[in-house]
Amino acid sequence: MSKPTPKNRSHPAHKGLHELRYWRPNQKWYHPFVCSSVVRLSQYLLGQKNTLTFHGRDRWDTLFANNQWNDNSGRGLLSFSNHVSLFDDPLLISNLGTTNINDVRWIAADHKNFFGSNVKGIIYSGGRCVPIIRGGGLNQPGFDFLIERLKNGEWVHIFPEGGRSRDQEHRIQKNFKIGIGKLMRETNPVVMPFYHYGMHDVLPIGKVLPNSGKKVDVYFGEPTTIDDQWWNELLKDEPSAITPHSSWKQASLWAEQTLLALESHYRPQAEKVREIATQAG
């Protein structure tokens, strides 16, 4: 028998799931304040207490200015990157937008770590985090909610590795989760990849408070509009009866190869280490 949902915390988006009882999908009066406060603090801690350098930032700014990704057809923006530290978001991602809550990304977040209590629910709901139940598959409220946001022409960010890299060389972990592929297939967004390096020094595993005086570099790829032509090219070698799951997998593989190419270009030593490890294995 499922546990009762606390009063005033139920919402149709929860679909009755007890794990999501502290999630507040609808914007509350205090959400703009919570959101802007977190963004400002993140911009200070990373942008001023550390050295943050963007490479190819003009691509992002051109895309982000006045929602250039949305061509009035409801096309959303899906950005994705590698994941190294506990607070890559919001520390890093906050430096890509403004303090206006309408310009802040939606992001998938582990329901246990970020929505395990009422206080966390208040904070992370205000920060536009969307709870994802690990092991719950792709047919769950959080994914449905992110799909709705993208179809509404909004910005969603995702870490397709599925968790922080534990690699000692801080390399991208292969075998991306197919969730990013589903988001791409269901919404045909504009996608923007970027690779960052240095967050492992700002917030090493095991630390809660960020260091200062460190250096972080962010490298932007090229934006790609996902449409029928893009899918036809991606799936041209697949049978005509390709299933949704296999198309999600192909799109996830494309995202993985795109991000790995950024890592290899800007940090070639990572690929060399990967090759040595493969040969040794």
Provide mean pLDDT, rounded: 88
Beta-strand content estimate: 5-15%
Structural class: alpha/beta
Question: How helical, in percent, are the residues?
Answer: 25-40%
Biggest sheet descriptor: 8 strands, mixed
Describe the structure in your own words:
This protein has 281 residues and is of the alpha/beta class. The chain has a single domain (17-280), classed as Glycerol-3-phosphate (1)-acyltransferase (3-Layer(aba) Sandwich). The chain is built from 11 helices and 8 strands. Strands 1, 2, 3, 4, 5, 6, 7 and 8 form an 8-stranded mixed beta sheet that branches. α7 crosses α10. The longest helix is centred in the C-terminal third of the chain and has 23 residues, at 244-266. The chain is globular and about 50 Å long. The termini are far apart.
Secondary structure layout:
Blueprint: H1 31-47, E1 51-55, H2 57-64, E2 77-81, H3 88-92, E3 106-110, H4 111-114, H5 118-126, E4 129-132, H6 141-151, E5 155-158, H7 179-187, E6 190-197, H8 199-202, E7 215-220, E8 224-225, H9 228-234, H10 244-266, H11 268-280
Parallel strand pairs: 1-7, 2-5, 2-6, 3-4, 3-5
Antiparallel strand pairs: 6-7, 6-8
Write a brief caption for the model.
This protein is α/β, with parallel strands linked by helices and 281 residues long. The chain has helices spanning 31-47, 57-64, 88-92, 111-114, 118-126, 141-151, 179-187, 199-202, 228-234, 244-266, 268-280; strands spanning 51-55, 77-81, 106-110, 129-132, 155-158, 190-197, 215-220, 224-225.
